[in-house]
């Protein structure tokens, strides 16, 4: 019998922590898990899931417009923000219940409290000031939005944490930051009828994504009425008597809007966590530094998910947790595989992507061939929509392997998820070419792109 209260104590009841805690408990381990806010974590409570519900809500305005070309007469429409938020909250509460139930039915002990490290094997449960000991401790505290308060009036801005619970729909909004969260919310709010201004420090939205896709989405967003302002920063935010915000921008202009949201990235959630008391090393960004088995420099203190700042995505946190279970409790050392992670941006239109961008592939390989197409999806013919779909396949000339696929358009995320299996298996362009098309579909373009569009040699487009 272990001298500790628990075999595993998990700090953080989000995607990674709940998975590790539930599975360890199902293996008969004595598990404790502390959550300071709500079980389910960022993804379920104020991330992926409610965001996707917002995306669905926002798409109806376009569906209503498209309907006319197909002979439908849609009467007057109106979006009821309060009703949507209430329905969304009900669904989130249901999911939260499932997360708790999964832990409880497997025998994990739940602590509804903030927990901090007290020493290498001890955790303090703040709610009742109790100290418990554990053989292993898992840090799964996730990340938190960066919130710049040093901009004058920064306290008057919100982050993605608050956007899900606003009492009223903002009539107008400035979003600072054009990473995926900023871009997704710009599209969501615009779809719901909010006047959106998206400001970014750089030249182009979505740093790290393929340049052609970035440019095409930028154009679509502008076409939908979103003001995208490159090379722009917030310099000051002030309140106004009517509850609005008066925003000063680095380009010298001033805007009065209902809300300002900062979407400038997320930082690992380790502040005040007591890592130093356990002797755990962190990186410059506060992330817990881990080895290939998610072990910190103190081998029985483990960390998975956003708090390690490897790849900040839910399936990655869950995968890291499952690998940790294999390594720690099943005697089968397993490292998480971070290669070829399919990713979506739930913008409108949507992005689905896997593998290298053209720029990355151009540097990684001597020569690559790019197959590119831009077309109007079939639905757009009758609806009259101007929206274009973009697809791009990047192939390493030497091996014929498909090293990157990038799609902009309806259901791009769904397409990429299915395609990811083939790419992970090492599919070649010849494999794509001998795959039968499914007609009529947009995805059939992926297997009928026979003619190269351009090549990249030595990093240069030729
Ligand atoms: P989290 O899910 O953040 O869980 C950490 C938990 O720890 C939280 O519940 C927190 O309250 C708790 N906690 C923190 N400190 C303590 C403490 N000291 N004591 C007790 N509890 C503590 N990912 C995708 O894959 N797809 C998407 O579409 C997507 N969309 C997103 C949209 C938004 C707006 C945001 C913000 C994120 C999105 N993500 C998405 C990212 C995804 O939510 C995270 O990658 C994922 O939740 C990480 O899981 P985690 O277990 O590491 O941390």
**Structural class label:** alpha/beta
Q: Please report the total strand number as a whole number.
A: 23
How many independent structural domains? 3
Shape label: globular
Q: For the residues shown, what is the average pLDDT?
A: 97
CATH superfamily of the largest domain: FAD/NAD(P)-binding domain
Alpha-carbon distance between the termini? 68 Å
User: Approximately what portion of the residues adopt beta-strand conformation?
Assistant: 15-25%
CATH domain topology of the largest domain: FAD/NAD(P)-binding domain
| Assigned CATH architecture of the largest domain | 3-Layer(bba) Sandwich
Please compute the radius of gyration using only Cα atoms.
24 Å
Query: Unreliable segments (pLDDT under 50, ≥5 consecutive)?
Result: none
- The helix count comes to 13
Specify the biggest β-sheet: 7 strands, mixed
CATH class value of the largest domain: Alpha Beta
The proportion of residues forming helix, as a percent range, comes to 25-40%
Bound molecules: flavin-adenine dinucleotide
